[in-house]
Amino acid sequence: MKRITILFLITSLLLAPAAALQSQEGDLELDLRRDFGYGMGGDIQGKFTLTASGPDDLVEVAFLFDEEVVSVAEEAPFRYVFHTGDYEQGVHALTAEGTREDGSVIYARQLTLNFVSAEQGMASAGSTMLPLLVVIGLIALLGAAMPLLESRKGKPFEVGRYSGAGGAVCPRCGLPYTRHVLSMNLLVGKLERCPHCGKWGVVPSASRAALEAAEERYRADRDKGRMTSATEKDDLQRLIDDSRFES
Known about the structure:
Layout: H1 2-24, E1 25-40, E2 43-53, E3 58-65, E4 68-73, E5 78-83, E6 90-100, E7 105-108, E8 111-115, H2 118-153, E9 167-169, E10 176-178, E11 190-193, E12 200-203, H3 208-246
Parallel strand pairs: 1-7, 2-8
Antiparallel strand pairs: 1-2, 2-5, 3-4, 3-6, 6-7, 6-8, 9-10, 11-12
């Protein structure tokens, strides 16, 4: 029984330092922020800031690159600003160690990053941005063509029914129409073609009150057009009837 007790105590003493060290690791948070340059995945190039944060009694933080201290911050905010050009290109291990008021040390998780050259950063950024720019360009072209295609289809305007992008009031003819979701967005409004007068313009989303007023104008113009057409048809029929008697 004594042997078991002694073995338990020895085992506890051997494991205690490791357990204490494990509980302290990760108590220090380490964040990397890009100030200027390139960053994609684990590759970085340019100016960056390392920021460490931890318990309220944190009095000092040492920043380490490849297990060598490169900077010591003695007051909050605990930061280290660096440029990748000041270090050799390649993979580097970034971490930090914090000292508390009682002298105990806490550790941050390690960041493994690849410092690349400016040329590599620009090349990687270009290869990443090119497909994105192509997609944006295609969406812009589709958005510009959508109103024209729908107008050629002869799709009638339905009063009070608008798309998710809302409705607009034409600044030229004053009539309402729907804005297309895929139309090119130029910050102040979307590039749209009015289905009533056929003019292009950059139009913002109109308010409910503005749309209702424009809808009233649309109804009035529509009814006026029907009355004119009916009158012209009656006049034409009258001329036909009169010509029949003259012959």
